[in-house]
Design brief:
There is one protein chain. The protein is of the alpha/beta class. The chain has one domain: Rossmann fold (3-Layer(aba) Sandwich), CATH 3.40.50. Helix content is about 55%, strand content about 15%. It is built from 12 helices and 9 strands. The strands form 2 sheets. The protein has a 7-stranded parallel beta sheet, sandwiched between helices. It has a two-stranded parallel sheet with strand order 7-8. Helix 1 runs parallel beside helix 2, helix 4 runs parallel beside helix 5 and helix 5 packs across helix 12. The longest helix has 29 residues. It is globular and about 55 Å long. Bound molecules: NADP nicotinamide-adenine-dinucleotide phosphate. NADP nicotinamide-adenine-dinucleotide phosphate binds next to helix 1 and helix 6.
Amino acid sequence: MTGKVALVTGCSTGVGLHTAIRLAEAGYSVVATMRDVAKQQALLNEATRVGVTVEVKVLDVCSQASIEAAVADVMALHGRIDLLVNNAGAGFLGSVEQTSDADLRRTMETNFFGVWNLTKAVLPHMRAAGSGRIISVTSVGGLLGQPFNEAYCAAKFAVEGMMEGLAPLAQQFGVQVCLVEPGPINTEFVASVRSSSQAALATMAEPYATLAQRYMAASGNVFATHGQTGDDIARIIAALAAVDSPDFRTITSDFAMATVASKVVDRTGNSVIEAFANRLKG
Ligand SMILES: NC(=O)c1ccc[n+]([C@@H]2O[C@H](COP(=O)([O-])OP(=O)(O)OC[C@H]3O[C@@H](n4cnc5c(N)ncnc54)[C@H](OP(=O)(O)O)[C@@H]3O)[C@@H](O)[C@H]2O)c1
């Protein structure tokens, strides 16, 4: 055991589940959170299979009461949070005209306000300790807007802006802030997007229906050809947790890098952080 405590969100499936396992293997005491603890069996089975233990706790990132209760519980039990992994997220398929106010708010609540509020709840403890690391899973969709993903991209862009603003400040009190930006990952994500977007997709009329078909055809099946696994991303997160000086930005595959290349010149994102950190130096 490292004696260090990691809090991970969205551990029922995919990236979160594997991240909880990889961090436990690395010696962290892992508080693996999920909004519905009835879904914990897959995580517990994997933990048993690889011979680690994780502590499951309820945390719905859309509920401030849930965030406060989870952080208070962890602090009462462990007295510290060394690593926060903001992983929970959910997509939505539909362009602006098909996105209801409820769809937009749910997408922003899950992907952005949840990250904001949980980070705000954990940060004072890290600042008091003079150390800590906050790793947030965004997406290539946090760097590049994509048609029919406007709400999701807006939310991920918001996280990017928040974290890029916070990183140079947090650095001043020993807290490192990192972004992980995957392209396609083969998890439950697509199924969950399809289910939450059913109504928008079913009512998509012209000219959007034809445009959507063309867009899907031109995009190809990137999940089959370039998709990473949840565990690929978990290994990247565990590696970021382990190094002394983690890069601010990790674009997780060459495919993801090629997708955002026209927008990102410095693959590490370090130059932006450094430039603003320099302005904070006395
Ligand atoms: N899969 C991709 O292609 C892809 C690409 C780029 C970035 N990402 C990002 O990667 C991260 C992990 O996604 P994934 O691929 O592992 O998808 P996933 O298998 O669908 O996992 C998403 C996790 O987030 C949880 N979640 C959703 N709403 C929540 C809430 N209100 N409170 C707490 N947890 C909540 C889900 O819980 P439930 O089981 O209860 O729904 C699930 O555990 C997300 O931030 C996603 O945006 C995914």
